[in-house]
Write a structure and sequence with these properties.
145 residues, 2 strands, mainly alpha, 4 helices
């Protein structure tokens, strides 16, 4: 990864965090550089965003927003998302969050893992679902021909 960034004109010094420190939020939050980590996707991603989740000494490094990004507009959008009941409102607010992140780039997604689910054509019932839910959430409605 660092080699690719160097080709793009960035100066990088590689450092691997020792295994004993990989769970230390202070280490994740305070070293200079880029942190590569896997995070939740979908609606669960909002749980680690926002100013209140920034990991810092005042909260004993308990936050999950290790990038230190704080933005009052993002805080407002997260609050609006968590209180919106209408699915259309939730989609609109989630789109606004993506727009804000695309404009300010506090973090960059490098990988978009997918999990393909394969079903026989004789099965009817599997449906599109939220990323956080089980593929079998409506299994009681499935039928096999």
């Amino acid at each position: 990864l660092a080699s690719g960034w160097r080709k793009g004109g960035f100066d990088f010094t590689e450092y691997v965090v020792p295994n004993a420190q990989t769970q230390d939020n202070q280490v994740k939050s305070s070293y200079p550089g880029i942190l590569m980590s896997a995070t939740a996707g979908g609606e669960n991603a909002f749980n680690s965003m926002g100013t209140s989740n920034v990991s810092r000494p005042e909260n004993q490094w308990r936050g999950r927003a290790w990038d230190g990004y704080a933005n009052p507009e993002l805080d407002r959008l997260i609050a609006a998302f968590t209180t919106a009941l209408d699915p259309a409102d939730r989609v609109r607010v989630a789109s606004d969050v993506v727009r804000l992140y695309s404009r300010e780039l506090p973090s960059i997604s490098l990988f978009f893992p997918v999990t393909p689910l394969v079903f026989t054509s004789d099965l009817s019932g599997p449906m599109v679902r939220p990323a956080e839910s089980s593929p079998t959430w409506n299994i009681h409605e499935w039928t096999l021909r």
